[in-house]
Design a protein that fits this description.
- There is one protein chain.
- With 324 residues, the protein is mainly α.
- It has a single domain, classed as Up-down Bundle (Rhopdopsin 7-helix transmembrane proteins), CATH 1.20.1070.10.
- It is globular.
């Protein structure tokens, strides 16, 4: 045991997306722009929802929390990946590697539960419209958000308990741009078949259960929408399309990685990029371009800031004239 402790690795080497040195500057620019877009897009949604009283409804409350979670999902590994494009040796400390795995499953599983909450919100709004504000009151909305974080914390604690005490004393190269449990556990100095099976089963179970519940709920909702032909139902159908698109884009890669694990690491890298970077930047686009209320609120927010900027400029000009 003492020999294992002495030889325990202190850092891991991340192989990144590509070993080509020529592609590193290109990747740096692309992913820096994407990450900036993620931050600006999701922060804009949060500011829009919080600043406009017309958007103080359960659906937009959950949407703002989804945007916050998207920022978290994109931030646990993307800044490290971007900085690694500028260095030759992409290393990460043992503790930072554990932190990445912890936050990956905390934010990832939390977002799955939050998507379920958004599906429940749409179910109540469309299938029980007369009781919507009674059922989806502020207390229930807060409980749904807290529940997503609690489930995420429980899930990631279970996942980390499988790997935190594994001995790492040999190879330390992780074939990805961040630390993920299935990849890191394979580097342990003992047989990890059973541990890897538990890790995949745990994440796979959560992904599949979330996906099945979402499919069932949206099937019920779509059947309800189909029976009506009013303008409100057309609006509901548009909102549902946005929700289903987000669910497919997020859960699809997770299911492929954990439920149907592939031997091709290059495919897994593409899927990992998709749900950690592309989905968080697509969510603001999907929810804003298809939602006239959000667009109107953003335009109102823009005019408010422009007006305040003009007032500030006028005050500064008056102050300058007075000092002269």
């Amino acid at each position: 045991m003492s020999e294992i402790n002495i030889s325990r690795v202190s850092e891991f080497v991340l192989l990144g997306l590509s070993s080509s040195k020529e592609l590193q500057p290109f990747f740096f620019v692309i992913f820096l722009l994407l990450y900036t877009g993620i931050l600006l897009g999701n922060i804009l949604i949060i500011l829009t929802v919080t600043s406009d009283s017309r958007l103080h409804t359960p659906m937009y409350f959950l949407l703002a929390n989804l945007s916050f979670t998207d920022i978290c999902v994109a931030s646990f590994a993307t800044p490290k990946m971007i900085s690694d494009f500028l260095v030759e040796h992409k290393t990460i400390s043992f503790e930072a590697c554990l932190a990445q795995m912890f936050f990956l499953h905390l934010f990832g599983s939390g977002e799955m539960v939050l998507l379920l909450s958004m599906a429940y919100d749409r179910y109540v709004a469309i299938c029980k419209p007369l009781h919507y504000m009674t059922i989806m009151n502020r207390r229930v909305c807060v409980i749904l958000v807290l529940n997503s974080w609690c489930v995420g914390l429980i899930h990631t604690t279970i996942q980390m308990s499988f790997a935190v005490n594994l001995p790492f004393c040999g190879p330390n190269q992780v074939d990805s741009f961040f630390c993920d449990l299935p990849l890191v556990t394979k580097l342990a100095c003992r047989d990890t078949y059973f541990v890897s099976l538990l890790i995949i089963a745990n994440s796979g179970f959560l992904s599949m259960i979330s996906f099945l519940l979402l499919v069932i709920s949206y099937t019920v909702i779509l059947n309800t929408v189909r029976k009506h032909s009013s303008a409100s139902m057309a609006k509901a159908h548009s909102t549902l399309t946005a929700h289903i698109t987000v669910v497919t884009l997020y859960l699809g890669p997770c299911i492929f990685i954990y439920v149907w694990p592939l031997n091709s690491y290059s495919v897994n890298k593409v899927l990992a990029v998709f749900y950690t970077i592309f989905t968080p930047i697509l969510n603001p686009v999907i929810y804003t371009l298809r939602n006239k209320e959000v667009i109107a609120a953003m335009l109102k927010l823009k005019s408010r800031y422009l007006k305040s900027g003009q007032v500030s400029a006028a005050i500064r000009n008056i102050h300058i004239l007075e000092t002269r």
